[in-house]
Design goal:
Layout (H helix, E strand, L loop, with lengths): L1 E7 L2 E8 L17 H15 L3 E12 L5 E6 L4 E6 L1 H5 L11 E11 L4 E11 L2 H17 L18 E5 L4 H13 L5 E5 L7 H12 L7 E6 L13 H9 L4 E5 L7 H5 L2 E2 L3 H8 L3 H36 L4 H42 L6 H17 L5 H17 L2 H6 L4 E3 L17 E5 L4 E5 L17
Parallel strand pairs: 5-7, 8-9, 8-10, 10-11, 11-12
Antiparallel strand pairs: 1-2, 3-4, 3-6, 4-5, 6-7, 13-14, 14-15
């Protein structure tokens, strides 16, 4: 039997080390026998004195929160597990709450020993997610906040133009995404102009570059549809498209936006704010350009509408002629002459309709032959102009339907009026402005005694702040992040 002896701040500690070896007290002296509480207390004191503050990284595991409000969990890696506890007061200082299990974290605390159970553990005072876990928490927090503002509401999404006049692209000028987009556009419609806003798509400052590019191309003057995206990558590589600046720029774009970030399994916040999400940049290029069948359908649509309108006018005129003929009863000769004139007019009207339909059919046949003989996409701009001219001529003959269309226009005007920003003020809301004319969005932007202007639907009010009230979940003693 042998023993080891160590002194720590004047305390003699004797530890049993097995037979055949002895150290500590001189030979012939009996070693001191410690009680369990004494030896556990000495070990706890040695731990706490030696490791007053440590930083430990690991994966959060076995998380439970007791009724007392204390959290018990473990920090683990591929080789070891460290029990840990975080008391309620320390938990209250976590702004984003406890991370979920499996999150990689950095814990700051001190090592100790729970004497009642002889359990070695880490007493955690601060807990910060690291790596992908931190990104996931930021993603969830920003998604919840922007979703509460209505930025992801499906009702905000707009349809894509059937035949775009110019496509805007916001991506890296050297990435594979741009090559894929241009390759698809050249194949489907080489005459379609493309306007590129080159930006970085990852790294420091990339989000601000993307947001500015979306604002420039999305002002409604340079293009009528916008593709925003990049190729695949890790969550960190794609993170610029989760930044609030990019999401808000996509949401406020005046033209429809297609978000094409990464691969189909990758979902970023710009996907949720866009008018349409494409699984890949190549798919986005497919979505903005109609195929050959779609173009032929667009060419046929005005002609079919004209035929329908002409036939409807012919049937209506014939019915009116028959009704007029039934009203004429006497004399028979006058009635017969009138019927002859009506029949002649009917034949002339039918002949005119057939001529118009024949002319339209011949033009449609000519267009089909020209499309078959040539590359239709190279002549798309010229054909569009001719279609607009033909549509204008056909619409001139269909003015009788303007009443129904005027009703639709009035309904649209009412909808636009309802969505006007001034309509929000008309519903009883107001806008608070400080002395510099800036909008007040949070309680800590003003102080008691400050003067404010309240913009109303009609006029303004000058008010003075008496008290400020922070939100229930925000500590007024802490600075805002």
């Amino acid at each position: 039997m042998a023993e080891h002896g160590r002194k720590k701040r004047g305390v003699q500690v004797d530890l049993f080390s097995g037979p055949g070896r002895r150290s500590g007290p001189p030979a012939g002296e009996e070693p001191r026998a410690f009680t369990v509480s004494e030896i556990v207390g000495l070990v706890r004191q040695a731990l706490e004195d030696r490791y007053r503050e440590v930083l430990v990284t690991g994966e959060l595991s076995g998380l439970t929160v007791a009724s007392s409000g204390h959290a018990y969990f473990s920090l683990k890696d591929d080789r070891a597990v460290l029990p840990a506890v975080m008391f309620r007061m320390s938990l209250m200082r976590l702004r984003q709450g406890l991370p979920p299990e499996g999150t990689a974290v950095l814990a700051r605390g001190r090592l100790t020993l729970f004497e009642a159970r002889g359990r070695f553990q880490l007493l955690v005072e601060e807990l910060v997610p690291t790596g992908a876990g931190a990104l996931e928490l930021r993603f969830r927090e920003l998604k919840a906040r922007l979703e509460a503002e209505g930025l992801f509401d499906p009702a905000r999404r707009r349809p894509l133009p059937r035949i775009p006049r110019r496509v805007g692209v916001v991506t890296s000028p050297t990435g594979a995404a741009l090559r894929d987009i241009l390759r698809v556009l050249r194949r489907r419609n080489p005459a379609l102009p493309v306007l590129l806003a080159p930006t970085r798509v990852q790294g420091e400052g990339a989000a601000l570059e993307i947001a500015r590019a979306v604002d420039r191309l999305g002002d409604g003057r340079r293009c009528d549809v916008l593709i925003v995206g990049r190729g695949g990558g890790s969550a960190e590589d794609l993170w610029a498209f989760n930044e609030e600046a990019v999401v808000r720029a996509v949401a406020r774009s005046r033209v429809p936006v297609i978000s094409a970030v990464g691969h189909e399994v990758d979902v970023v916040l710009s996907d949720l704010a866009a008018d349409l999400r494409a699984p890949t940049p190549s798919a986005a290029a497919e979505l903005v350009t109609p195929d050959r069948e779609g173009l032929e359908a667009l060419l046929r649509a005005p002609l079919l509408e004209a035929r329908r309108l002409l036939l409807a006018r012919l049937v209506r005129a014939h019915r009116e002629l028959l009704e007029t003929g039934q009203e004429l009863r006497d004399p028979r000769l006058a009635l017969a002459a009138h019927r002859l004139r009506l029949d002649e007019s009917s034949r002339q009207l039918a002949a005119a309709a057939r001529r118009r339909l024949g002319e339209a059919h011949r033009r449609l046949t000519d267009l089909r032959l020209r499309l078959a003989a040539r590359e239709p996409r190279a002549r798309l701009a010229a054909d569009r102009a001719r279609l607009e001219e033909l549509g204008g001529r056909l619409r001139a003959s269909a003015r009788s339907s303007l009443g129904q269309r005027r009703f639709g226009l009035l309904a649209t005007q009412a909808a636009l009026t309802a969505h006007s920003p001034l309509a929000v003020l008309a519903r009883g809301y107001s806008l608070a402005l400080d002395a510099d004319g800036r909008a007040v969005r949070a309680w800590d932007q003003v102080a008691p005694g400050d003067g404010l202007r309240l913009r109303l639907h009609r006029g303004e009010l000058s008010v003075r702040v008496e008290r400020t009230h922070p939100p229930p979940d925000e500590d007024p003693g802490e600075p805002r992040p």
